[in-house]
Amino acid sequence: MEDFLWHKVSENEKKEIEENAKFIMKSFSEKLSKIDRRIPEFLIERRDMERSEEKGESCENDFRKIMLENAPQKNKDFIISREKKW
Asked: What tens digit of pLDDT does each residue of 13-49 get?
């Protein structure tokens, strides 16, 4: 079983591996050179840096109460959470 997993590479195999690697790198670089690297203008252009605040939707009157009831840890009117725990 060891012979299957590892064997000494002959000089001919080294040359063949080197040629295959060169062929792969050359074909890859040719494909990369054909890619259009320009960034479309619609991705760059931005007139406003902040979104405009519009009229928000109304929520249920007991939203705050429901949120606090569902919070695992709370202190009066605040939800206690941990920082940077992913």
From this structure: 999 999 999 999 999 999 988 887 776 655 555 666 6
DSSP string for residues in the chain: -HHHH--PPPHHHHHHHHHHHHHHHHHHHHHHHTS--PPPHHHH--S-SSPPP-PPPP--TTHHHHHHHH-SSEETTEE---SS--
Give domain limits for the chain: 10-43
More confident residue, 13 or 55: 13
Bridge partners, 79 (sequence order): 74
